[in-house]
Amino acid sequence: MARLFTKVKKFVKESFRKCGFKEQIKHLERTVYWIKKLKPNADEALLIAAFVHDIETAFAWKKLQKNYKPKFVDKNRLKKHQKEGAEIIGEFLEKQGANPEMVNRVKMLISKHEEGGNEDQDLLKDADSISFFENNVDMFLKIAKKAGKEKVRQKFYWMYNRITSKKAKDIAKPWYRKAISDLNKLNKNKMKNEK
Ligand SMILES: [Fe+2]
Question: Please, which pLDDT band fits residue 192 given cuts at 50, 70 and 90?
């Protein structure tokens, strides 16, 4: 089983390096870390799902190149992201000869990692949010200069408010508050002039 996780890590890292978005690997590694913090006895499927949950982004990024736009809080994009991510990893795991139970569980976890659903889907969503505030805020502050502060503010609100467990919310809270404060500090004129 551990060998399967190693293969998944290689596949995910290569996919993000090839598409030109290798910075996202840190976010994925830390999602695994936060899953272990929130659920020390997490099973292999949950750890695999944590590492691979954003795989659709690597494929969409590669296809769209410079025209790739963040999902922000667009419900349709988020649903597509979950659904296609589950299909991509499902196919990969089947090719590796993973047992159907494992394939289905990983797919089930990825398929609701943005919206949440059952206990483990919620757990993955919460770990994703913590890792987002820990690792992805600077990227979104840069995006705010082009896309506008409000879109990014909505993204920060949504990523924080979707967290289910109090423990996860308490971990994310200081990062979330700093993210909103840093966003508020962004100078409007500077935003217009900077590319
Ligand atoms: Fe994520």
Answer: low
State residue 61's pLDDT score. 79
Torsion of CA 94, 50, 4, 9, to 10 degrees: 110
Neighbours of ion ligand 1 (CB under 5 A): 54, 128
Quick check: 116 and 162 in contact, CB under 8 A? Answer: yes
pLDDT bracket for residue 188 (50, 70, 90): low
Whether 51 and 8 have beta carbons less than 8 Å apart is answered as: yes
Query: 65 phi and psi, to 5 degrees?
Result: 50, -125
| Whole-number percent of the chain with pLDDT over 70 | 94
Dist. CA 27 → ligand 1 center (Å): 7
CA 193 – ligand 1 centroid, Å? 30
